[in-house]
Each structure stands twice: as C-alpha cells, then as structure tokens.
Amino acid sequence: MNNRRRTNNFTYVSSCVKYMIFMLNFVFWLFGGLLIGVGLYAFVDKWQATGSVRVENLYDVVLNISLVMVIAGGVVFIVSFAGCVGALRENTCLLKFYSLCLLVFFLLEMGVAIVGFVFPHTLQSLLEESFTDKIIQTYREDPDLQNFIDFGQQEFRCCGLSQEGYMDWGKNEYFNCSSPSVEHCGVPFSCCMNATDISSGLVNIMCGYKVQLLPVSEASKKVWTSGCIEIVRSWAERNLYTIAGIALGIALSQLFVIYLAKTLEGQIELQKSRWQS
C-alpha cells in the first residue's frame, strides 16, 4: 500500500527548477511593469507639456525615450509573464514561447556584439549616417531627448555626434548660423568645458555662443570638439575586457535560463507521458 502511494505521488517535475524559473521571471515581470508605468507617465507628461508628440516614422519612435521604455517594458512584461505562468501552471506551450523569445534575444545580442567588436568603424559610420541629422535637428523639440543629449555630452566630454564634432550643431535650426536666434553659430552649454560658474554654482548657458565661427584650435579651448559616437567607441575600446566580461555574463545567464526552461519542459512531457501510460 505504501509503495503504491509513493508511486502515485512521484513526479518528474522538479520543484526547484519550476520555482526558480517562476521567481526569476516574477522579478522581471515587475521590472517590465515598472518600465511601462514610467514610460507612460513620461509620455503623457510630454504630451501635456508640448501639446503633441510626433510619431511619423521609425526614427521618431527610436528617438522617443518614453516610447522606447514602454515598448521595452511591454516586451519584458509579456515574455516574463509567459515564463511565470508557464512554469507555475506547467504549460509547455508558454514555456516553448518563452524559450524561443530568449533565444531570439540571445542571437540578436550576439549579432550586435560581433558587429561592434569586429567592425567598430563600420558600426560607427552606420550610426553617424542614420541618426546624426535626426538627433541634432530634434534637439529642443523633445525635452527627454534634449536632457539625454546634454547628459551624454557632459559625461563623455564630447560635442555633436559625427566626426564633424561641434560643427554638427550647425544642422539645428536654433544653432544654425542663418538662424535669427541669439544662439546662432553656437552650441549647447553641455558642450562647454566649464559650463558651471565656480563662484555662483550656476550654469552659464551662453558659454557656447558663436563657437562655430572659431577654428578647431580656438574652439577646443572653450568646448569639447570631438563627436560623441567617436568618443564612445574609443571608450568602449579602452574598456573592452570589462564590457566583454559583462556581455559574457549576460549571455551565460540567458543560456542558463533557456536550459532551465527546456529542462522543465522535458520534465513536464515525461510526466504527461507517465499519466497517459
């Protein structure tokens, strides 16, 4: 009698694997929901502040930080939800969907990493040709993008995006030399080497005025003259081993989770075949 009960209670499904997948995905599910919430809040706030949000093409979506957060959060939310429910309810269809999504993410990441490490200059040229004009032109139109650009220029000590450096800002309607704006022929304050006044602690927004009229030798005394994409590429090359280590850790983690999901899927199939027999 006892042997029969033990046989009936036996299961191929490992509780350890099952609840490990559930807990991991529950954390990412919460994170995805947080991204969606913050992105929607930022999108609505921008809508109310500007009166409209332009979403006419792919560039408008990619350069809209709030929309990127909503889309990324939605993807994380859906995939992690499939992992949570698939593990908890022992649903092989959801687990297969979850494993396939992780595999697609892994292959995309590997593709970007290979292009970035093997063809860094090609990737740099591609980014410059694809995004420089659009990003420079939409500066001041999108508050989130403006803050992001200012933060990037200050942190990486660069100005503009392409190899033209600070002269990129001539493509912006406010900083173009033909503009009636008082900022014509200038650059944003975030390009300045010393934008903050030491005595007062205030930001001098006029520090980049008329800089485009100066040669590089003179401009380099007031502002950073190199483009940000080139500076970021150089920074990545200097920190290659650190970035490679982080990327390898992420890749191995993804492979481990895929392994767990496929293991649980196989255990569920074994349990179903046992019940049928």
Rg over C-alpha atoms, rounded to the nearest angstrom: 26 Å
Got a strand count?
0
Task: Give the CA-based shape.
Answer: elongated
- Report the end-to-end length measured between terminal Cα atoms: 20 Å
Mean model confidence by pLDDT: 87
Report the total helices. Answer: 10
Order of helices and strands: HHHHHHHHHH
By helix and strand content, what is the structural category? Answer: mainly alpha
Largest sheet: none
User: What is the oligomer described by this structure?
Assistant: single chain
Description:
It is built from 10 helices and no strands. The protein is mainly alpha-helical and 277 residues long. Helix 2 (15-50) packs antiparallel against helix 4, helix 4 crosses helix 5 and helix 5 (92-118) runs antiparallel to helix 10 (240-276). It is elongated, with a radius of gyration of 26 Å.
Describe the secondary-structure layout.
Blueprint lengths: L1 H8 L5 H36 L7 H5 L2 H24 L3 H27 L1 H19 L4 H14 L59 H4 L8 H11 L1 H37 L1
Helix pairs in contact: 2-4, 4-5, 5-6, 5-10
